[in-house]
Amino acid sequence: MNVFFRALFLLSVPLFKADNLLAQELFPNTEPASNIPKKTLGLRYIGEAYSDGNGYIRNVNALRLMYGLTPRLSIYLTGSSSNHHKKNLPTDYPYHNTPERGVFKPYAFNGMSLYVKYRFLSIDEEKSHLRMAVYAEGSTVNTAHDEGEPRLMDDTKGFGFGYISTYLKNKFAISLTLGGIFPGKYVGYQSDVIESMPDIPTTVKYGDAFNYSLSIGHLLLPKTYNSYKQTNINVYLELMGKYFGDTKVWITPQGVPQYLVETAFIPSALRKGYYLDIVPGVQFIFNSNTRLDVSANFRGIHYSYARLYPQINLGLQHYFYLK
Amino acid sequence: MKQFFFSLIFLFLTCNGLHAQFTTADIAVNGLTCSQCSRSVEMSLKRLDFIEEVEMNLQEPTAHIIFKKNKKVDFAKMATAVKDAGFAVRHIKSTYNIEIPSSDACFVYNKQLYYPVSQAKLTQQKLQILLLGKGMISDGELKKMDQKNWVEKPSCSMTASKKIPFLALN
Asked: Which strand (E) or helix (H) includes residue B69?
């Protein structure tokens, strides 16, 4: 871990010292307050992977369509798939096996989510800009998500909204995102401990969450722009996290009226919590259009139960400029 | 018939609005910090049917525009195209090619009246202008200029539905 923080420090120093570098705001894992250009269609692949023990690699693969409706209004439609969930919640949920690690989980389509961003303030100057935007998102994803932390892209249904502020001055760019996530209920089943017994109806209400991130980045190469064909290399450092409330679970075993599991029996993974991940990343932009992002989530303050560290993230994005 | 023909030629030669033409322009863009952003501005400008070519200077950043011949240029649409890409115009400079020099610096082009905000004469073949129309110059750039002797309205007798003030640079 010491090596990691040393590397992080070395990466950060040029941000504040170098004279000929430009700041960049095409953050790999968070949205800037800027928009997709009008009449431009963006296609983005989002991939995440981490090792879950017993040789299982958990993946998320998502495809995002992005479109600039107006210069200030962008709309994203994301379809995601993963091997993060089983058809049913874990056996003896939530008392045991929560979160369930090191077991086979089939790869499945999770659902769709919609994200809309509106930039309401732009103060553009020659070598600086301040932009502010608000966003809203909604999701129809409905999976047997067994951790308490909600995520609309691939884990939980619900909606969210938030605020983004991106400031760029000379060689330094910084972006802050603050938002709320209001997940819906998952209504499904868990397998009974006794195999011959029928599945147990289970309802899960994930806690509301407050998400926050702070991102910085700069251009590493080229030192001087000459042509669109120069491959751009940008480095980023993102601090990303969430605060989320307690999860509520209702169970209806056969012959027993539905009951709410008492908080005392709720495991840590479903209790209220918070975390802040440290996410360094590198980005390659080819032909000033095709973007390849590679980043990794490392544990910073506390941790997320929805992943094991480190988590490797991959992004591939291309713009199609429509007539 | 011969008289009618010569009258037509006379009209053609004396009407600046028909003969004069913009061939190039330079747009300085605010807020651009990456080559991908420059490309977005370029692609947005290229959608305009009167633009032949866009050469982006990634360092400045500015866009050098070459207009199509026989197409009417609309600077307001160019400013909107930059805005559509998500950025703002710092300024637009262009050169107005005059075939018949005139003492009146106003001219009507593409149904728009261009008028100088300070003293200028159309006595040279090429008049370099800085456009001051809405969205064609940033507030920051305007603040830097000495506007003491600027006129608010065109002093010439020409009329058009839309008026675009400019500052003569030569």
From this structure: none
Q: Which residues contact A245 (CB under 8 A, 6 or more apart)?
A: A207, A208, A209, A272
Specify whether the CB–CB gap between A230 and B56 falls below 8 A.
no
Measured CA to CA, the distance from residue B121 to residue A283 in angstroms comes to 52
Q: SS3 for A125?
A: coil
A chain contacts of residue B84, beta-carbon cutoff 8 Å: 37-39, 68, 70-71
Say how far residue B108 (Cα) sits from the centre of its chain.
Answer: 12
Q: Looking at the complex, report in whole angstroms how far the Cα of residue A174 sits from the nearest Cα belonging to chain B.
A: 13
Per-residue model confidence as pLDDT tens digits over A151-209: 999 999 999 999 999 988 766 788 999 999 999 999 999 989 888 889 999 999 999 99
Q: Are B133 and B74 in contact (CB under 8 A)?
A: no
Q: How do the pLDDT tens digits run along chain B, 170 residues long?
A: 555 554 444 344 434 444 458 999 999 999 887 888 899 999 999 999 999 999 998 888 899 999 998 899 999 999 999 999 999 999 999 998 876 666 667 888 888 889 888 876 666 678 889 999 999 999 999 999 888 888 877 777 777 888 999 998 87
Q: Which residue, among B29, B43, B60, would best test binding to A if mutated, counting the most A CBs under 10 Å from its CB?
A: B43
8 Å CB contact between B82 and B56: no
* Coil vs helix vs strand at A241: strand
Strand B107-109 to B112-116 pairing: antiparallel
Return the residue matching tokens 């058009």: B160
